[in-house]
Amino acid sequence: MKKKIEKELTAKDLKWHSFEDMVAEFSRNKKFKKTYDEEMLRFKLARQVRELRDTKHFTQKMLARKSGMPQSVIARVESGRRSISLDTLGHIAHAFGKEIELV
User: Fold this and answer.
1) Phi-psi region of 10 (alpha: psi -120 to 50; beta: other; left: phi over 0)
2) Which domain does 54 fall in, by range?
């Protein structure tokens, strides 16, 4: 029978990495980098929608009404956890009196 040897970890056994270091390390993988970049764009868009809504002093319900969609859609867009269609983004932009511009 094998003996189970347990070792207590100490601080010197651990190596800490910053988030930026880990992203840099994993970004060498093209699939990871592509997915990470897409996620960051989604979160950036979500933040922009939320900030613009706050600037206009709209509630999610008000924005939903002006854009012709349910409030739950606005909440999902602002969470940044799901991708949104160009059509949905267009409705939101129109509610703000904005146009979508691809650069």
Assistant:
1) beta
2) 42-97
Q: Is residue 18 part of a domain?
A: no
User: Does residue 1 have a pLDDT over 60?
Assistant: no
CA proximity to 89, closest of 61, 69, 59, 65: 69
Domain presence at residue 21:
no
Model-wide pTM > 0.90? no
Please name the residues in contact with 32: beta carbons below 8 A apart, sequence gap of 6 or more.
Answer: 26
Contact 46, 79 (CB under 8 A): yes
The conformation of residue 51, written as its DSSP 8-state character, comes to: H
In a domain, 32, yes or no: no
How many domains is the chain partitioned into structurally? 1
* Tens digit of each residue's pLDDT (9 = 90 or more) over 79-92: 998 889 999 999 99
